[in-house]
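User: Run a structure prediction on this.
Assistant: Running it now.
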Amino acid sequence: MLNNASRYSKLIKAEALRLGFMQCGIAKADFLEEEAPKLEKWLHNNHHGQMAYMENHFDKRLDPRLLVEDSRSVISLTLNYFPAEQQQDPDAPKISKYAYGMDYHQVIKDKLYQLLNFIREEIGEVAGRAFVDSAPVLDRAWAKRAGIGWIGKNSNLINKKSGSFFFLAELIVDLELEYDQPFTADHCGTCTKCIDACPTDAILSPFIIDAKKCISYLTIELKEEIDQDFKGKMDNWMFGCDICQDVCPWNRFSAPHSEPMFKPNERLLQMKREDWQDITEDVFKTIFKNSAVKRTKYKGLTRNIDFIKKSS
């Protein structure tokens, strides 16, 4: 006979898959002892650049029990975003695959709340919070602890069966569950394709990223003008960057997602280089109405387009 923790865990994982999540793993809510000195050193070396929010809530980033009172479990989930189609004009400025469809924050939050409601209906009064990339939670560390995959040299979480083109999300709950074995193996081996392919040398060494050099940071997080040192190195990316994932051998296992909300805007896929260079604010608002690209705003996107145009 299954004990409650085991039975509840099986229920939760089955419902997570029904809701469209790709993987679900569970770890004990505890202090992230291994990650603490790494995060402190990364911040001390100013590798986070203008992302000042990374300095906030240092203790909470390392201990989920400070985020959710009496929390017992961290439920880690992945949601595939690998698209079946990509931008049609090979010369057009590029957008990271994760931003082709609707803003993932909205899509995933909705699924997380459905899962949390299911837990309350099936199990009882459970306190918990949902997290998607916008709170002090070290997603990759928790996914690794929950047995979903390992952290690659490009600092992305990689799964043997599905690669790395997926979002990470968490439910932190005050419910005792059955915990998965942490992922301890490293399947990158001697491969350095991600390091070698990065045109801005943002991967300083395996697992250490200088965000200030990362194309994703430069096109999204950076609010001022892009430094001329990066001229000719942006590889035509205007929002985000997929290079270190595109070259990763494990992403040969990436399969197209089945999430309707992530279906790409056809107009986005069809736009040619000239269309992007002449984009108006009205067109921007229409194409990116519910998109993560709104984060960079019209001003930021046109800044990026102008920069890569002058670099070519």
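The beta strands are 23-28, 73-80, 94-95, 128-131, 150-151, 157-158, 166-173, 203-205, 208-209, 237-239.
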